[in-house]
Amino acid sequence: MNKSVVSWALYDVSNTVFNLGVVGLFLPLSINERQGTTDADLGFPIVISMVIVLVASPFLGALTDQLKGRIRTFTLLNIVATISICLIGFSSTIMGTLTFFSTAFVSVYLAELLYNSMLKDASTSENRGKIGGLGIGLGYVGSLVVLLVALQHSGYNSNYSSAFLGIALIYILAALPLTIFFDEKHQADTRSQTDIVLSATWTQIKRSINHFKRSPTLLKYFIARYFYMVAVTTSSTFAVLYGLKTMSFTEREVELVLLLGTVFAIPGAMLWGYIVDKIGPAYALKWNILGWSLMLAAAFSIPTMNLSNQLWWPLSAILGLFFGGLWAADRPLLIQLSPSNLGEMFGIYGAVSRLSFLTGAFVWPLIAVTMDLGQPAAVFFLLCCSLVGLAVLIVWVVSEDRLCPPSQQP
């Protein structure tokens, strides 16, 4: 295993620690501690951040196909993200906290776009699922460390400054190896004039649209991804608030539930990596989304049917097994479907993720707070989105002959 593979896989620690530690745990806890806050104080800043990322992602992906500087841009974004994560916990106002969070959020998600496109250089078609699964598994190891520290130090100050400082440190330490050791095979366009680059960027974006017309399966994949990512990203973001407000868990119980899911997510990610290489990414993705749908159905049923909230414990463990498999499957599937300019495709991949996150972050507080239907109604909406994504995968994507398992491919 070479240094590019190791450094690429290690960065998933940064990405996962931010999403679980900041977006999924400590920011919701911090918001919940402040008087008069609601789910909207988490959802709407994410919406604003996602609008920025959504606009920037396709241009950044296409631009880095033209310029020699993917690693440099990636490093700059990580530095901005690290500083912003540190500052989240040191703001005395909710507005300051959310401003620093939004800055970190935009930087992390743009860096993730570049990171995803580096998977091609870090792997081959034979081991792409295993390497993706390795990265996801390492990411959950980082999250496990964050949760263990959180359990040891319950009772942070209300802005959780120590927690955000620790997450920022883990984030930059896990990101540095990729900056230093990654061997980028990306070939840049030798033209460097700004007007030529911008013109080429716009040309690539138009070419992507034309490619959808020639490759309808790729377009259908992105449609499916939009719907199932609404379910995945939104449920991950609001899980802590759901546990506190609907499941009536304490802060410590929420941390233990997340710890249990993370423990199961580590072997689950590795297992899904082998499944992807064995049966192919399209089939693996179908089964993974089916599992997500069943878990969301259970999460909706517990409060609406007055079932014991203790059922949340085995539910968390099972969901952990499915969590990492999503990225272990859908990134290799995109590479399998894509033309040569992966920067463009991963730019669209990132844009679809952001649009999904934007949709969910807007609709959850709209349903739960503005319409006053409560959090279970918002979970039901996510369940519907997951089922639509699964249906598109089954009917339009998995049925394609060119997406047969690797052992059957010519």
Q: Would you mind describing this structure in some detail?
A:
The chain starts with a helix and ends in a 13-residue tail after the last helix. The protein has helices at residues 3-33, 40-66, 70-88, 94-117, 119-122, 128-152, 161-181, 194-214, 216-245, 251-279, 281-304, 312-323, 325-337, 342-370, 375-397. The protein is an all-alpha fold. Helix content is 81%, strand content 0%. The protein is globular. Helix 2 (40-66) runs parallel beside helix 4.
What structural class do you assign from the helix and strand content?
mainly alpha
Low-confidence stretches: 190-197, 401-410
DSSP summary: helix tally: 15
- Globally, the shape reads globular
What share of residues are in beta strands?
under 5%
Helix percent reads over 70%
Largest sheet: none
Q: What Rg is obtained from the alpha carbons, in whole angstroms?
A: 20 Å
Number of strand elements? 0
Termini gap? 27 Å
Order of helices and strands: HHHHHHHHHHHHHHH
Give average pLDDT, whole number.
81
Please give a handful of descriptors for the protein shown:
410 residues, mainly alpha, 81% helix
